[in-house]
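Hey, can you fold this one?
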Amino acid sequence: MGASASREKFRESVSALVEVDVSTDDADFWDELWKIPSTPEEVFELIPPAAARRLRDERFENLATLFTQATAQMCQIVETPYNIYFDQALNCVRVLTRILPFLLEKGDLGDADENVEQLCWGTAGNVGDEKIGLMVGGHGDKSVTSSLPHAGTGVGDDQEPLALLVVHAAMHMLFLPQFTCDFHESKEQSGSAGLFARSEEREDRDMRAEAGLTAKTIENGVSLVPRPTSIVWASGAGINGNNQLGGDSSSRKYDKNRIEVLRLMLAACCDPLFSPADEYNPLASRWLAVATAADAPNAPCLFYSLLNTVLSFDPSAGLGMSDTQVQLVELSTQVLAALLDCGLPGNPEPVQDGNGEPLIEFEAASKGGFNVFRTLMSRIETTKELSFIFKGFSRLLRNVYEAESSYLPGSAPKLECFQELLVLLWKFLEENPLFMNHVLTKCDVNELVVPICYLMYKSRRDPAQIGLVHICTFVLLKLSGERSFGVSLNKAFKQKLPLDIPLFSGGHNDLLAITLHKLVVNGAYKLVPLYSCFLTIICNISPYWRSMSLVAAVKMVNLFELFSSPKFLYSGENAHRHLALLLEVFNNVLQYQYQGNTHLVYAIIRRKDSFGRISSLTLKKAQEQCHKVFGDKNSVHYDADRARLANGEAKGVPVGEALGAGVDSGEKFQPTEAWLNELKENLPLETVTRLLQHLVPVVDEIVSSKSGVVDEGEILEVLHEITMVGLLPVPHPIVIRKYQPNQYTALWFTAFMWGVIFLRNQNLPMFDGKCIELFQVSVQEEDVY
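Sure. Predicted structure:
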């Protein structure tokens, strides 16, 4: 059958399913349907969203048979993996990938539907089991369903729901010999603990002890070792071996099949898309619970396959990379991020048997919300593995600017999955305590800072990239809470980025400050809620800033002038908090790093009037300035920045604290005596005031002695030689503001991650935006099929 003929035959079969009732006993129709040659693109094109929904709502029996038979054939290929049936199995995978999201629209987190519930999760007298038995055994034989592991549904193996069978069959098919991997190892090899990579060294034990993690030994539990190791797609974390992703040509032949089954896994995990953000429960999806349960088939192998496939990829290999390989890397990133986003965080406390093999206690594994993938991630603990993970992240994130600055355009493939990579990086920083410590003490954290600054700087004006700037900000805020981060940023910055960034001679802390300054003065309006985060990051690193460049010093003082201007200062009763953070930055630098920061000292002296205006502010003056900028109290004229803030960002997701209070109240802010007293109390002006009192006369004297013509270098030299010991106030304790996890940021990450996955899967449109509730989607009307 030619390509055009098979396409037309498949179109006719889909039309029949949508238009008429097709008997489950019509063997000729169903057999022919599964044997029609097709491609993923054809399946998605010939089953448009309108047709899939009509099938679900008007011809549910046809959909039930389609779903059941596809599941049955996947179970059959797992039981008897003969390559003559691989094409037919792929057809089943493609059809399920297409229809599953439309079933989940009526699933656990969507609009519940009794028919969908019974089809996917029915167990008592499940017609699906009977159909599967007829498909694979001829007489209702349950051999296939009983062979698949049980995921704790509380019923017998002969009554496993179809949803569980689909997920488990997909996880089996990701490691099917000659389909997605080579033949398995022998049982002797598979049972050997010696192939597991976690050979412990003293350095690893010391690192665990420093983090307060103590190993616990038990006799029995659920193993976290990937077995057999030969089926893991790439070496890196979790296993030993020399088969790197870029060089293992024998593994490349399976990439297309891996991509197809990973798409099915992603479709089976898309429950969160159909929950309103303010109602989302990360424990509510049974589909995700099955995929992340302790007894999910090949879970350790899948975790390390996805992780190693992503982090061993080297874009610098250039022209040797195929589009299929890049696609596998990007899809692996998305599936891994989705699997790590549900359930409860893993416990990083090491648990092992007498041989040192990592285990999960049966009691912990059986608790609701347990996620084996989050546990595996939190338990990675050797220096070798942690270094592999860090190097992978830094190499892939560097690609965002290295691909732009290549001498030969297109010589290095540009990965588009940097947002998903940042989600994974965040999850490692948040849930693996050893990784955070390793990055800050054993690695050059600046390798992460540079691409993050690049992405923030480049995306600052693009409304579609607001989420990217948010996640970069969260990562920097998390890192800035550690002293080691601030110290590491003093390393000299010598790279040239493909950006219009001003030339400066300084460290990575200067790069960070210049980037955040640019986001404030030249960023999108929706970045306003992040201003406090930007200033907190700078404040956290300021006590360790040894030498601020001239460019960074000028920009920091410019920010003070900006936030002390009437437009910002009177935009809300809490707007002065930005000034308090900036003053704390200046105080930290002046009191702890004075000798190396004459540029900042001179910049403050040159803008002394700005500080003087704030310290001498009176209520009458404040009210006059507020009236001059914003008009009468009853005026409805709003500042454009704040007006846009009032609209929010995403359906049901909090946008965070606005620039000032009263944005939605309908009343203009008016300075009061209480507000002025609070401002005076909260602004730590004493250090800067004393600095100006002692140094302004010195600088004025130098200028007058030179008749007004003086080189700035001379002034800087004099300032450097002056000691301020005993003149400035006693140094205050260093205050570090650390990121505190909360349900709102967790919800934001879920919405952001699925928004990225939704947008990145539009070439083959896996998800239709019409029924998505997790975030807002603008959908064009389409013709009914």
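Strands lie at 216-217, 222-223, 351-352, 359-360. Let me know if you want another pass with a different chain boundary.
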